[in-house]
Design a protein that fits this description.
Elements lengths: L1 E4 L5 H14 L3 E4 L5 H10 L6 H13 L5 E3 L2 E4 L8 H13 L6 E2 L2 E3 L7 H11 L4 H25 L3 H5 L16 E6 L1 H4 L8 H7 L3 E3 L6 H8 L9 H15 L5 E7 L3 H18 L3 E6 L5 H23 L6
Parallel strand pairs: 1-2, 1-3, 3-5, 4-6, 7-8, 7-9, 9-10
Helix pairs in contact: 1-6, 2-3, 5-6, 10-11, 11-12
């Protein structure tokens, strides 16, 4: 059976897990094409106006898969960490897709809810296997294989400081050029589906690599460091992705290990609007670190995007020159 996985939303986070699991069960995995103008246009046309850009884009990717796959995998994600939630749009995503795109192959929309107990993830995979007429023993073996693959993926990111985008778009990601003397260390913050989609992020990661910037994302540090960073918050953050963004930011700000921060968000995202404002105000008030807040939507133009990025990099360059010219004699 051909199982279609849209190249959008949690693709850049969970794809190695999903791919390994389905292949271990003897299924063929089919991906939508990388985002392009046509995929975005189709998604915008069929989605309600007040949906955020990632949701519109997801619709376009599902449409791209419609005639390629026997079934499409769209999990109904509620929570991926105990005591925390994901944006409600993930919960309603399968229903939005079925309503807006009625002529689709069957959809696998098994619920994933780890709010009360993380071990419930195994039940999630058992239900997927049941849809595929697999036994619990077959599913368990496939799940173990998938977990090992997913763990290797995450460990490689942390060890080599390579982004998910660079891993998943390279046939042999071990050959990516390692940078020995980075010009700047830039903390790149945002949801995976905003940062790592090369089309909507205006090729941001490649542009930073070209100027020899060292990129840091929250996937590159362990959970302990993120938790350490969240202690700067006055209240617990109940959005998992928001917690990762803020925890990572405060960890590096407190340890003074970065030259600047770029936060990429999508227009119309409620959690992003709060997190972006909270982070920007605190950074400028307490840490005095250059901060660039980039908002994306279907109307974003690359010229304006590049102008703001170049201005930000000029600030980093100016600060580095100023610091290197400080007299040793006071």
């Amino acid at each position: 059976m051909k199982i279609g996985i849209p190249r959008a939303l949690f693709f850049y986070h969970y794809y190695p897990l999903w791919e390994s699991f389905f292949k271990a069960l003897g299924q063929e995995v089919v991906l939508s094409n990388p985002t392009n103008k046509q995929i975005l246009k189709k998604g915008v046309e069929v989605t309600v106006d007040d949906a955020c850009l990632p949701v519109k884009l997801f619709h376009g990717h599902v449409m791209d898969l419609a005639h390629k796959a026997d079934t499409i995998f769209i999990p109904r994600i509620i929570s991926i960490e105990p005591g925390e939630y994901i944006c409600p749009k993930f919960l309603g995503l399968p229903d939005m897709i079925k309503y807006n795109l009625p002529d689709l192959p069957p959809v696998i929309d098994i619920k994933l809810d780890l709010y009360n107990k993380k071990s419930r993830i195994l039940e999630h995979f058992f239900e997927i296997g049941k849809n595929l007429n697999k036994t619990r023993w077959e599913v368990l073996k496939a799940y173990i294989v998938a977990c090992k693959s997913f763990s290797s993926y995450k460990n490689y990111i942390r060890k080599h400081r390579i982004t998910p985008y660079e891993i998943l778009t390279q046939k042999n990601f071990k050959c990516i050029k390692k940078q020995t003397e980075p010009g700047f260390t830039v903390l790149l913050l945002g949801h995976p589906y905003n940062l790592y989609d090369n089309f909507i992020s205006m090729d941001l990661i490649t542009k930073l690599r070209k100027i020899n910037a060292k990129i840091i994302t929250y996937e590159m540090i362990n959970e302990k460091n993120i938790v350490q960073g969240t202690k700067k918050l006055t209240k617990d953050m109940f959005w998992t992705l928001g917690k990762n963004i803020l925890g990572c930011a405060y960890y590096f700000l407190e340890n003074k290990k970065i030259d600047g921060i770029i936060h990429v968000a999508s227009f119309g995202c409620g959690p992003d609007s709060l997190i972006g404002e909270l982070l920007e105000h605190r950074v400028m008030r307490e840490y005095k670190v250059p901060f660039l807040y980039l908002t994306l939507d279907e109307h974003s133009g690359e010229a304006g995007f590049d102008t703001r990025l170049e201005a930000f990099l000029d600030i980093l360059e100016g600060r580095k020159v100023s610091e290197s010219n400080i007299s040793a004699h006071g």
